[in-house]
């Protein structure tokens, strides 16, 4: 494969990541109610299942962001024009939407180096193969990084002649609570240089009926995606979850202002985690929260930018104003 891959993925860095994974599971299952972070879902298959979600007709964030890029790509190119740029796609997945921009930027003659970063090594490898057939190294220089967001950012090729343009798309920031999103953005700000840009996708608050439809597809792709978390627990921690004894549903919670995904146990059961030498009990219909997708308002987004050292350059909306890609510049 002509494109370079920097591999920092968990399989390569061993024990420490296993301990981190085990700690997150023990903490989450010891709580009442039980809650597990959604990043536990993202191995190669989890990342693949998420791409299937983005193809669902009612999953609005993906459709809206496509529309935004088609309609506003010239404006984004205008912001970046006049200098060499490193486009860093955090949690790139298959970069389906980012590729719309890359194609346009190349047509406009922008000098770009593309750096996708994703925890899923498989996703990055597949993406590099797609870039190879769609563009080729001669027209689009790219370096893929398989690893965690911030480890990846520490390992980007050093090129002081280029400004950074960090894309954090698909409403991925919304998987964090507001305080957690603040911490993430403060850390991102520390990593970047004055004048660099970020573009963040935020799913906006809207009619809860639309939200319900978006997160509960009739074909059960969301359910398969969420239940895949149990596969990871079985594989990594020697647990004996039987997925047929759990069901999943997404709900908008007006208190947390997020769509939360819950896995429900359809019976009283005890799950044995051999690698942890622990058992966890699940009561009949007991729920375990697996996803949190916060729905933002514009004033919250503006406060997040101002509070963490960013200046807003532009809000790019879809026609229905259900989603915004907000372009910010780093102030130091
Ligand atoms: C919600 S999906 C978004 C994918 C894509 N950017 C899009 O907009 O369709 C989140 C992506 O982030 C990756 N991911 C999750 N946790 C990560 C982490 N800690 N570091 C790097 N990538 C991560 C997942 O593998 C997945 O591809």
Write up this protein.
By secondary structure, the protein is an alpha/beta fold. It has 2 domains: about 110 residues, no CATH class; about 180 residues, Rossmann fold (3-Layer(aba) Sandwich). It contains 11 helices and 14 strands. The chain is globular and about 65 Å long. S-adenosylmethionine binds next to helix 3 and strand 4.
Give the helix tally. 11
Helix content percent band? 40-55%
Can you tell me the residue ranges where pLDDT is under 50 for at least 5 consecutive residues?
A: none
| Strand segment tally | 14
Query: What structural category characterises the helix and strand content?
Result: alpha/beta
Relevant CATH superfamily of the largest domain? Vaccinia Virus protein VP39
CATH class of the largest domain: Alpha Beta
The molecules bound to the chains, other than polymers, are: S-adenosylmethionine
The ordered H/E elements are EHHEHHEHEHEHEHEHHEEEEEHEE
CATH architecture of the largest domain: 3-Layer(aba) Sandwich
Q: Per the principal axes of the C-alpha atoms, what is the gross shape?
A: globular
CA radius of gyration is 20 Å
CATH overall fold name of the largest domain: Rossmann fold
Search tags:
14 strands; Rossmann fold; 332 residues; four-stranded mixed β-sheet; alpha/beta; binds S-adenosylmethionine; 40% helix
